[in-house]
Specification:
The protein is mainly β. About 0% of the residues lie in helices and about 50% in strands. The protein contains no helices and 11 strands. The strands form 2 sheets. Strands 2, 4, 5, 6, 9, 10 and 11 form a 7-stranded mixed beta sheet that branches. A 4-stranded antiparallel beta sheet has the order 1-3-8-7, with no helix packed on it.
Length: about 120
């Protein structure tokens, strides 16, 4: 069982920045695939950023150049640095993890989810 606890959400104006954190109850993050997903009101959950066991990162085209995913293997914490936020980024953000198997990119590829943290961006 992997427990994930997100923090760092809040309300910002367009152009602002936030850093989300996700504390994971695992021995080390290098043993799991991890990701950030988001879900806006009335929309499907979408992948935002991914970091595989070997540290390879990938971000969605919609946030490329603005969002950065990273992890601290000592603190067992995943981060999402979000800069130049846009109203379209307004959503609930979820941390997700997969312990075994290939690291995928869809919601169905992850077994464990945090409770979510709300990001509100005003124009």
């Amino acid at each position: 069982q992997v427990q994930l606890v997100e923090s760092g959400g809040g309300s910002v104006q367009a152009g602002g920045s936030l850093r989300l954190s996700c504390a994971a109850s695992v021995y080390t993050l290098s043993h799991v695939c991890m990701a950030w997903f988001r879900q806006a009101s009335g929309k499907e959950r979408e992948g935002v950023a991914f970091i595989d066991r070997d540290g390879t990162t990938n971000v969605a085209d919609s946030v490329k150049g603005r969002f950065t995913v990273s992890r601290d293997n000592v603190k067992n914490t995943l981060y999402l640095q979000m800069n130049n936020l846009e109203p379209e980024d307004d959503a609930m953000y979820y941390c997700a993890a997969r312990r075994y198997g290939k690291c995928g990119r869809g919601p169905g590829d992850f077994d464990y989810w945090g409770q979510g943290t709300q990001v509100t961006v005003s124009s």
